[in-house]
Amino acid sequence: MGGRGVRIAIVDSGVHAAHPHVCSVSGGLTISEQGEHPDYADRLGHGTAVAAVIREKAPNAELFAVRIFAERLTASIATLVLALDWAARCRMHLVNLSLGTTRPEHEIALRGALHRAAASGVRVVAARDDEGVRYLPGSVPHPAIVPVQLDWACPRDSCYTAAVDGETVYRASGLPRPIPGVPPARNLSGISFAVANVTGILARQSMITCVGRG
Length: 214
What we know:
By secondary structure, the chain is α/β, with parallel strands linked by helices. The chain has a single domain, classed as Rossmann fold, CATH 3.40.50.200. The protein has 4 helices and 11 strands; from the N terminus they run βββαβαβαββββββα. It has helices at about 45-55, 75-90, 105-120, 190-205, and strands at about 5-10, 25-30, 35, 60-65, 95, 125, 130, 135, 145-150, 160-165, 165-170. The strands form 2 sheets. Strands 3-2-4-1-5-6-9-11-10 form a 9-stranded mixed sheet, sandwiched between helices. Strands 7-8 form a two-stranded antiparallel ribbon. The longest helix has 14 residues, at about 190-205.
């Protein structure tokens, strides 16, 4: 099925929809504390690289670009909460969060957003931890969260689960989609792409729980 019928919100720096590794998106917007704007063009490249990974794994999925990073890869927690609420309101199946925060004071606000996401049947794929650093919201034990860890030895076309501290964690490669003529060492890589690899594989295999779809 290649992800057919699966709606994925890519919360990131936007997406360059015409990129040959993406080809198209089903919609998108910019979200900030000042409101919403229809421009979702990626001027930083990170969101496009993430979208390319997901498109490779799930070519028939419906991708939605939710830009919260504009001039640099930082955004407020309030903006992230607004993006998660948009995904819940628009009945996404999966949210790809190739981002996170290490600040524990944001957990209460993020838990609230996760509760609302779960009520709409949304699963949020996010980094649990990396190199000993725990990230929110991916490290929050919650039904809405699909926690991800990095495993450089895992092939790019697969992922696997492991029991960590009593919860099921997905592990995947941190390598992005290869760019012809560009050495891997010069390409983006890391936990962001482990998250994207898991999102694409879950979409491809339709390994999602769809509830509240009335």
